[in-house]
Design a protein that fits this description.
By secondary structure, the protein is mainly alpha-helical. The protein has helices spanning 10-32, 39-46, 50-54, 60-85, 89-104, 107-122, 128-152, 161-181, 190-207. The protein is built from 9 helices and no strands.
């Protein structure tokens, strides 16, 4: 006898519908761009009607906002889980390498969707502050990771951690674009390689006696 399926509550059904609409939108935005995908196409891809879309999202902007927040939460949680479960900083770096190798399997889709969401938000004054908040969350996570790394090496940060995090975060997008366009000779974990090189350089800088060299560390904040 086939076991009876558990009946979804109204809230569970609503969350399921929203999840399918978000997943369908992500697929279409990756394939056609945000402006190339209509509300009707998103609803059809998810298996719903136009009415179901507007029953969950005010408009496409609201869906894009939710998708930006969802991706940010998911990626930060994945990385946070990796580092929390690591036995040491080196173990955490190894786990991050594995995570980047896994992401590389879907890099064209992952990066295309990220770029589409970023460009759409940059052109939209309503969404731009949300994008800025999303980027700041990622940079804050980088800053916390850098401070932990310096502490593990017994040194202080050679510059404002927020500034160092800005460098790391900006490099990530650029490196991933280069990895996608010219994969020959660029490893899947190039982002981790760059982070490791920067960390070793900054650690050496932090260990240098004050006054030695041309300056005393990095500037406290990015130049205006």
């Amino acid at each position: 006898m086939t076991p009876e399926r558990k009946r979804l509550t109204r809230e569970e059904s609503r969350q399921q519908t929203r999840g399918r609409l978000l997943a369908a939108a992500a697929e279409l935005f990756t394939e056609r761009g945000v402006n190339g995908a209509s509300v009707e196409q998103i609803a059809e891809r998810a298996g719903y009607t136009r009415g179901a879309f507007y029953g969950n999202f005010e408009d496409k902007n609201a869906l894009v906002a939710e998708l930006l927040q969802q991706r940010t939460r998911r990626e930060l949680e994945e990385v946070r889980t990796l580092t929390q479960d690591a036995a040491s900083f080196d173990d955490a770096v190894g786990k991050l390498r594995d995570w980047n190798h896994e992401r590389a399997r879907h890099l064209p889709e992952w990066l295309a969707l990220r770029m589409e969401l970023v460009l759409y938000a940059l052109r939209n004054e309503e969404l731009r502050p949300l994008l800025a908040e999303r980027e700041l969350l990622a940079r804050d996570a980088h800053a916390a990771g850098l401070e932990q790394a310096f502490a593990a090496r017994g040194v202080g940060s050679p510059g404002d951690p927020a500034f160092l995090a800005l460098i790391v975060h900006a490099l990530e997008d650029g490196l991933l674009i280069q990895r996608l366009l010219t994969p020959a000779g660029i490893p899947d974990d190039v982002v981790v390689d760059a982070f490791d090189l920067l960390l070793r350089s900054w650690t050496a800088l932090a260990q240098r006696p004050p006054g030695e060299g041309d300056g005393q560390g990095l500037p406290p904040s990015p130049p205006s």
